[in-house]
Amino acid sequence: MTDLPGDTPYELEGVEEQDGVGTPDPFLRLWTPHRMAYIAGENKPTTGEAGQGCPFCRIPTLADVDGLIVRRSAAAYAVLNLYPYNPGHLMVVPYRHVADYTELTPDEVSDVATLTQQAMQAVRIVSAAHGFNIGMNQGEIAGAGIAAHLHQHVVPRWGGDANFMPVIAQTKVLPQLLSETRALLAKSWPSI
C-alpha cells in the first residue's frame, strides 16, 4: 500500500480500482447486499394476520433445512435469524400466531423456555459463545420487526465481538453460511 496523503489513490497488490465507485480513498469496501432485503422489508408481513403472509407461520410448513429450523417441539420451534446480529443468532417462536407474551399458554411458555436453554447449550458446543443476549421486543414501538407473531431472540456474544465493523461501518461480518450454521446447531442440539 502506498502512503495516503489527502486524496491520493491507493494501491493494493491484486486489487484493481473499480470504475464507478467514486473517488479512490484508503478504505476497502465490504459489500453486504443481503442486508438490503431486511432494509427493504423483504419477507415482512403487510398485515398482522396469521397465515402464509406471516413468515413465522409459514416457516414451520417448510422442511427444516429450507426454513432454517434447527429444532421443533410440540408448541414452538427454534430457527436461525435470516438477518443475524451475530453468527448463530436464533429465534424461538411459538407455532401459534400471538403477539404478546401474556397470551402464551403454559405449554408454550415451557417450550419457548426449554428451546432457549437448548439453543444456548448448542451454540456453546458449536462456537464456544461467552455469553448471550436473550429477549423479546413486544410491539413495534419496542423494536419488534414482526410484532404480530411473538419471537424470542437468542444472540450469542463473544469478548470483543463488538469490533469496529458494526460501529464504524454499520456492518456485521458473518463467517459462515446460514445453512452451515443450521447443520452444526442441529447436530449439536442437546436433549433436555
Automatic annotation (TrEMBL):
Keywords recorded for this protein, A-Z: Nucleotide-binding
Residues annotated as domain HIT: 55-164
UniProt signal peptide: none
InterPro entries per UniProt: AP-4-A_phosphorylase, FHIT, HIT-like, HIT-like_sf
Short sequence motif named Histidine triad motif, residue ranges: 149-153
Pfam families: HIT
Region of interest (Disordered), residue spans: 1-24
Keyword Nucleotide-binding: yes
Protein name: HIT domain-containing protein
Lineage: Bacteria, Bacillati, Actinomycetota, Actinomycetes, Propionibacteriales
